[in-house]
Amino acid sequence: MHRLQIQIRRQAWSEMIGHCLEAMPREACGLLFGCLSAAGIPAAEHYVPVANAAKNPLHSFELHPQELVRALYAASGKQELVGIVHSHPRAAPYPSDQDLATLWHTTPSHWIVSLRNPSLPEVNAFAFRKRQRENFSLEAISYEIVME
Ligand SMILES: [Zn+2]
After folding, report:
1. What's the CA gap between 96 and 42, in Å, rounded?
2. C-alpha 86 to ligand 1 mean position (Å)
3. Which sequence spans correspond to the domains of the chain?
4. CA 38 to ligand 1 center in whole angstroms
């Protein structure tokens, strides 16, 4: 097991999963805001649901542009964007080719909530690591759910 790389508050965790369940059978998406600790570990404190503007929301997601801007504006100066969340209603919690094509490389974490078994959501977090030049790789990161 690799070392801990992000924390998420229980409340944000519950809201993230609740939103993904509500959106079924469509993919849900949202943002996690929080702060970077002194040790450089991001802490996700709040979940903000964002509408899925994809043409085919059963199989993909696209953060609704206006809601995205509104959420980023509301957090600016207070909290940082520490994660982007989306769900896989039927697939495993691993990135699709389309997920890998994201432009949000610098966001510290990318969360995938799989609801293939809705009573037992599976959640994985990933982060892009820059390789040579413009090559990025996506790696699984470990997380911890915290009360505070
Ligand atoms: Zn996906």
Report:
1. 24
2. 6
3. 8-142
4. 31
CA 128/CA 79 separation, integer angstroms: 21
Distance 88 CA to ligand 1 centre (A): 6
Of residues 132 and 107, which shows the higher confidence score? 107
27 contacts 52 by C-beta, under 8 angstroms: yes
Residue 130 has what pLDDT? 76
- Model-level pTM? 0.93
pLDDT value of residue 1: 45
Q: What is the pLDDT of residues 44-78, one digit of tens each?
A: 999 999 999 999 999 999 999 999 999 999 999 99
**CA of 92 relative to ligand 1 center, distance in Å:** 9
The reply to whether CATH 3.50.4.10 applies to domain 8-142 is no
Which amino acid belongs to residue 120? Answer: L
Tell me the residues surrounding ligand 1 (ion) with CB < 5 Å: 96, 99
Report d(CA 125, CA 7) in Å as an integer.
Answer: 11
How far does the centroid of ligand 1 lie from the alpha carbon of residue 61, in Å? Answer: 7
